[in-house]
Amino acid sequence: MALPLADYKARDLVGYGDQPPKVKWPGGARLAVSVVVNYEAGGEPCVVFGDPRCETAGIGSVRGEPGLRDLILESFFEYGSRVGVWRYLDIFENHNIKASFLVVGHALEVNPEVAKAIGKAGHEPMDHGYRWGYAGSLTGRPREEERAMIRKNIDTIRRLVGERPVGQFIGGATLQTRELLLEEGYLYDSNYTGGDLPIFVDVKGKKALLVPYSRVLNDGRFWRENGFILGEQYLRYGKEMFDRLYEESALTPKMMTVALHDRLCGQPGACRSGRGIDRLHQRPPWRVVRAQRRDRESLDRTIRRRLSALCAALAARRILHLLAGWRSR
Amino acid sequence: MVATRDFVGYGRNPPKVEWPENALLAVNVVVNYEEGAELCIEFGDPSCNHIGLDHYGPGRPVAAEHARDLYVENQFEYGSSVGLHRLLGIFNKYGTKATFFCCGKALDGNPAAAKAIAERGHEIGSHGYRWIPQRTLTREEEKQHLHRTVDVIKNLTGNRPVGQLTWGVSLNTRELLVEEGGFLYDSDTIADDLPYFTEVQGRKWLLVPYTATADDYRYVEPAGFVEPEEFFKELKATFDQLYKESARVPKMMSIGLRPRISGLPARANAVEKFIRYARSHARVWFARRDEIARIWLDQFAR
Q1: Which one of A44, A191, B205, B235 has the minimum C-beta count within 10 Å?
Q2: Count of domains in chain A?
Q3: What is the four-CA torsion angle of A162, A168, A172, A177, rounded to 10 degrees?
Q4: What per-residue confidence (pLDDT) applies to A202?
Q5: Average pLDDT, stretch A41-67?
Q6: Which of A159, A164, A104, A154 has the alpha carbon at shortest distance from A128?
Q7: What's the CA gap between B229 and B225, in Å, rounded?
Q8: Sorting pLDDT into bands at 50, 70 and 90, what band is B191?
Q9: Span A264-274, mean pLDDT?
Q10: The domain containing residue B201 runs over which residues?
Q11: What element of type H or E holds A118?
Q12: Is B111 part of a structural domain of the chain?
């Protein structure tokens, strides 16, 4: 294979290096924790929706054969909207957490009650595409087609949740996506796992804010290679991540993201009640607030709503107890 | 021409090396710095790298052929921009000196990293120019890549590399290394725990083995580690066994890490926990690979 020894081109392999900026999180917090729930049920490819074949990722038996319905896989997804999402909404309400919901537009359309509940509870709707999986992938779309898809989801979310999304994470996002998000009034782009902290990047002369997503503390790793098998593994991973970032945040405030899916950690085994308060209560006083998905110069109304006392649904209420050491300011 | 296979090795009686500081077990931490050298459209490659990744989407988005894949690129960028510094911080905390096998192109893309690694006293060895199986290169290409990597390391740090570990060692790799000159050893073997000699073009050539098991790549390979504690347990079990054996014959332990894998916050805990564990034992020496190579050459090269 002839490989060019070409000079290095435009990828940012350096980031902040060993000099990350010191952000000031609200209330003197040193660690911002963002809980993100992927709400996808009804967004996935399905013959019933006119797609050529059904989704294959998850429990199913048809394996995406063209034109065939896969009733088991369809119900696997339906679990998320019928049962899983309500578990999350209840947990967040019980612990006074404001989360970010990565919502698929079509999923909201087939279950508007969930959309209303998300809006009413004050959670942030994030753009997860009007459709999901191959039906919603942005990769390779002509610019105006992608813009139309983005606009359709902005409108859908605004109509059903009550406000438009200002952040996005979608599989298959590209640099074209990044440009379009700036043009379509988004505040930040979460199609990014290249660092721990938000970072500005140059997009054709304008500044775009990237807010990182979570690649390992992500329940999408259930049923994936080397993914989590038990909910408690997700919990333990989250604890390890939290411990180290919390320690590092003494020097430089940090951020962590807890990524969940409606049908995955919404399953009872992953969501069972935890034991009592964790060792966190023995720690020196600390605070956790929801990530402010914005530049650090200002807090706008949207961000202020996302502040909360506690965080991290994780695999269970246990992690909520884990982070429940925060007390009112 | 590659030496034929040796199934015998040291047999029942490995040589008894004398490690410094009265140590019985030498522990070498390897960091493979590959980030920025992987296949990438932006670098002019035909497609993006699609292996060795953390998969977090039930339906992993597949980038269109010949398209950039941010999902993949980001995982590597995390390593070079954040993971690397996290690992350097941990090593610094305990005064641990490691061996960084660096892809030439990774250093080209992050010269500050090369300097940071060297300034902290770590060894920089060659990891090939690109993170690709070396056997996919022609002999001439591999020679060019090697030469370029040596130059990059020399120019950025003032010191040339004396060791190499590659991915997908070819039948030419070892010969080219010897022909290039200036190298003392390579680590393209997992056939032993201890260094041993082979023959290249009629002369003795030192191999300092790498590890098949105590390698964080297993986080992203099938049937691999899920939790950091599992990686720690692997390291601990390996250490415990070698430590026990080292009472009879001094031994060596190798650990393999990557900034984009063990540099993640949770996984870094396993690294730190292991360093603390190993340090809590007497007669353990955390060594750079080139130090080990020099000692072995000094004591056994005749």
Answers
A1: B205
A2: 1
A3: 100
A4: 87
A5: 87
A6: A104
A7: 9
A8: very high
A9: 64
A10: 20-300
A11: helix A112-120
A12: yes
Beta-carbon separation of A4 and B44 below 8 A: yes
pLDDT given at position A301: 29
Nearest to A171 among B57, B132, B220 (CB): B57
Residue A8 has pLDDT above 60, yes or no: no
The yes-or-no verdict on residue A319 having pLDDT over 60 is no
**Phi, psi (deg, nearest 5) at residue B14:** -65, 155
Q: Which amino acid is at B212?
A: A
Average pLDDT over residues B229-249: 96
Euclidean distance between CA atoms A280 and A266, whole angstroms: 24
Determine, yes or no, domain membership for B3: no
Residue B162: CATH number of its domain: 3.20.20.370
The CATH number of whichever domain residue A123 belongs to comes to 3.20.20.370
Give B102's strand partners: B33, B126
B53 min Cα distance to partner chain A (Å): 10
- B222 pLDDT tier (thresholds 50, 70, 90): confident
Q: How confident is the model at residue B46, as a pLDDT?
A: 85
DSSP string, B18-82: --GGG-SEEEEEEEEE-TT-S--GGGT-SS---SS-----SSPPPPPTTS--HHHHHHHHHIIII
pLDDT at res. A204: 83
Overall number of domains in chain B: 1
> Mind giving me the DSSP string for B115-176?
HHHHHTT-EEEE--SSSS-GGGS-HHHHHHHHHHHHHHHHHHHSS---EE--SS--SSHHHH
Instruction: Determine whether the interchain pair A55/B35 forms a contact, defined as Cβ–Cβ distance below 8 Å.
Output: no
With respect to residue B14, please indicate whether it lies within any of the assigned structural domains: no
Tokens 């360093």 correspond to: B275
A-B contacts (CB, under 8 Å)? 188
Q: Which residues pair with B185 in a beta bridge?
A: B163, B206
**Is B140 a member of any domain?**
yes
Residues from chain A that touch B45, judged by Cβ atoms under 8 A, are: 3
Cβ within 8 Å of residue B237, ≥6 positions away: none
Position A212 scores a pLDDT of: 95
Q: Residue A263 pLDDT > 90, yes or no?
A: no
**A41: three-class secondary structure by DSSP:** coil
More confident residue, A55 or B217: B217
- The reply to whether A275 falls in a domain is yes
Instruction: Pick from A191-200, A222-231, A302-311, B143-152 the range whose average pLDDT is largest.
Output: B143-152
Domain, as residue range, for A83: 26-52+62-322
- The yes-or-no verdict on residue A304 having pLDDT over 70 is no
Give phi and psi for A83, each to the nearest 5. -130, -55
